[in-house]
Design goal:
single chain; 465 residues; alpha/beta; Metallo-beta-lactamase, Chain A; Rossmann fold; 7-stranded mixed beta sheet
């Protein structure tokens, strides 16, 4: 009998990691990093032997789905890694950035601890850039194409379908034989919002006996994308017209490209007031380059805007700031700036520096366009924090705070239900990748709307299929 152990994204959004064992073969689906209040779990030893894993199937490149892969390799994993080519390209960028941040953070903390004689208490990084390099150069990566069946091993096959979430994202239909019968289980990864800005719509899934499905927004519905864009434009225009600046904490992959798409269109139509738009994130810049190289996989809207130089999202007011010096020079601009910077949940990165210089000024606005996990600075600000602590300094929050969820790359409650409704022969539904309250609501709605019972998966729980 097939079994699944879940070691992350259980009653929480991050840390996706699920281990399917069938016929003595061990297949891992994602190996992501915990973020927010559960970050300390990243340093824990895996609750299994990494060397015993035969295959790793990756759904997409977000850090909470790929962030512990170098740690897995470092601790003994020698199997094959399956991911779409675009996912592999983005994952390399994201993991190198993750390693750089962890290394720099460790070095800073170590120097401070050394002066206090407490250097042994400083936790070492999960991995460094050399570990990431080994993960991509020495491991065997196989790049499946969408809608093509592959034999993983004897009696086990799979197919990747476009999840419409970020570039290269997929949900995985995995089939195996048991007692002469074929069983199919689907791992959703993260499924898309169908907003039509950058990514094509989520593919349908026709049939499956079992489903592991994300529930990030299982308790709510996004407003229509037209309303979202209008709300976004209103904040931008009003803030710039009062001589303020707009700070946008943004995830480097997908969300940044969506924002550039909207700002590019505003610039083209003359709706964007005179300003400078700074993409102050080297990782987001590199990710945008990857999106350009896969323009054929984006929406028609994006493909129609490919310029002669091959760029998709560029416009005259857009400035890419690569170096720390270029980033610091933004501080000299008193008004008329839109600053897009990471990290998306404000857990570090250049956005925190911009908070230090601008969040205390009531003329400015902070515009959140993505999910903020519990325990992050972003979540504190969204929930109304009057003061924040940045680099040891307490700073008052006077800028206006705005949250726009319609840009989300995740399907909302209605979107998840619609996707599930097309699955024939579905017998078992398991809820993952969502906060517990969201999962409780979705479990009830799933029963009411589709008459399907669901189980909320617990940490380290073993499921018999």
């Amino acid at each position: 009998m097939a079994t699944i152990h879940s070691y992350g994204a259980t009653k929480e959004v991050t840390g996706s990691c699920h281990l399917l064992e069938v016929g003595g073969v061990k297949i891992m689906i994602d190996c992501g990093m915990f973020q927010g209040e559960d970050e300390e779990k990243n340093a824990d030893s895996f609750y299994f032997d990494p060397a015993s894993i035969d295959y790793l199937l990756v759904t997409h490149a977000h850090l909470d789905h790929v962030g512990r892969i170098p740690k897995l390799v470092k601790e003994g994993f020698k199997g094959k890694i399956y991911a779409t080519l675009a996912t592999m390209d983005l994952a390399e960028i994201i993991l190198l950035d993750s390693a750089k941040i962890m290394t720099e953070d460790f070095e800073t903390k170590y120097k401070k601890a050394l002066r206090r004689g407490r250097e042994r208490k400083i936790t070492k990084p999960l991995y460094d850039p050399l570990d990431v390099e080994k993960t991509f150069k020495k491991m065997e990566w196989i790049n499946p194409e969408y809608d093509t069946y592959y034999d993983l091993c004897e009696g086990v096959s799979f197919i990747y379908r476009n999840a419409g979430h970020i570039l290269g994202s997929a949900f995985i239909e995995l089939s195996y034989m048991e007692n002469s019968d074929s069983h199919t289980i689907v791992f959703s990864g993260d499924i898309g919002n169908d907003n039509g800005l950058v990514m094509p719509n989520l593919e349908k899934c026709d049939k499956s006996q079992s489903l592991y499905v994300e529930t990030t927004y299982g308790n709510r519905e996004h407003q229509p994308i037209e309303n979202t864009i209008k709300e976004f434009k209103d904040v931008i225009i009003k803030t710039l017209n009062r001589h303020g600046n707009v700070l946008i904490p943004s995830f480097a992959v997908e969300r940044t490209q969506e924002l550039l798409c909207v700002l590019r269109d505003m610039h083209a139509t003359g709706e964007l007031p005179k300003c400078k738009v700074f993409l102050d994130s080297p990782m987001a810049t590199r990710a945008t380059e990857v999106y350009r190289s896969y323009a054929q996989e984006l929406t028609n809207r994006c493909q129609e805007n490919v310029k002669e130089d091959g760029t998709v999202f560029n416009f005259d007011s857009l400035i890419y700031t690569q170096t720390p010096e270029a980033s610091r020079r933004i501080n000299d601009i008193k008004s008329g700036a839109i600053i897009i910077a990471g990290s998306g949940m404000c857990s570090g990165g250049r956005i925190t520096h911009h908070f230090k210089h601008r969040i205390w000024d009531k003329r400015n606005a902070v515009l959140f366009v993505g999910f903020q996990a519990e325990g992050t600075l972003g979540r504190d600000i969204v929930e109304g924090a009057k003061w924040i602590n940045v680099y040891g300094e307490d700073i008052i929050v006077k800028a206006s705070i705005h949250t726009i969820n319609g840009f989300s790359a995740h399907a909302d409650q209605a979107g998840i239900l619609e996707w599930i409704s097309h699955m024939k022969n579905l017998k078992k539904v398991f809820l993952i990748h969502g906060e517990l309250e969201s999962q409780k609501v979705f479990k009830q709605v799933l029963k009411e709307k589709l008459n399907l019972d669901a189980h909320i998966v617990g940490f380290k729980e073993k499921i018999l299929l």
